[in-house]
Specification:
Strand content: 5-15%
Helix content: 55-70%
Strand order of the largest sheet: 1-2
Radius of gyration: 19 Å
CATH architecture: Orthogonal Bundle
Protein name: MarR family winged helix-turn-helix transcriptional regulator
Structural class: mainly alpha
CATH superfamily: Winged helix-like DNA-binding domain superfamily/Winged helix DNA-binding domain
Distance between the termini: 40 Å
Shape: globular
InterPro entries: HTH_MarR-typ (IPR000835), MarR/SlyA-like (IPR039422), WH-like_DNA-bd_sf (IPR036388), WH_DNA-bd_sf (IPR036390)
């Protein structure tokens, strides 16, 4: 008979642990791009818009797993800076989000610094550990997403 290796039980609050790692990593990235005047959340928003444009705000919010009201609030400073345009959509009731040329330039500026921060984190944690972390996060999101879909279907 083969002895089963005991699995360590989780210790502490998973939400708290996730917030700890998120805050720690966010501080590193935010420090790396601080000279651009943006935070990582804003750079992420510019990058998602660039990948999807022109995009309806509701589709962008869904892709980023944000409430539409949160997205709207986060778009305002980018629109005010002239980096993002919220223009008319295909019908009178819809709008489309797109980057402006200054927005593309700002994204490119931040992207260089983001890449350095990413490589530094990979070096600090080890590329293999980062790849494992990404895989585990993706798996957890898939399971949690499936749970949420089941809940919304009344299951």
């Amino acid at each position: 008979m083969t002895a089963k290796t005991p699995t360590a039980a989780p210790r502490g609050c998973t939400n708290f642990k996730l917030r700890q790692i998120t805050r720690t990593v966010s501080r590193r990235y935010d420090a790396a791009i601080a000279s651009t005047g943006l935070k990582m959340t804003q750079y992420s928003l510019l990058s998602h818009i660039a990948a999807m444009e022109p995009v309806r705000p509701s589709d962008l919010a869904a892709k980023m797993n944000l409430e539409v009201s949160t997205l709207s609030r986060n778009l305002q400073p980018l629109i005010a800076q002239g980096w993002v345009d919220l223009g008319p959509g295909p019908d009178a009731r819809s709008r489309l989000v797109a980057l402006t040329e200054p927005g593309r330039a700002k994204r490119a500026e931040v992207q260089r610094l983001w890449k350095q921060a990413q490589l530094q984190l990979n070096d600090t944690l080890g590329v293999e550990r980062v790849a494992q972390l990404h895989q585990l996060i993706d798996e957890c999101l898939a399971v949690l997403g499936a749970d949420e879909e089941g809940e919304s279907d009344g299951e």
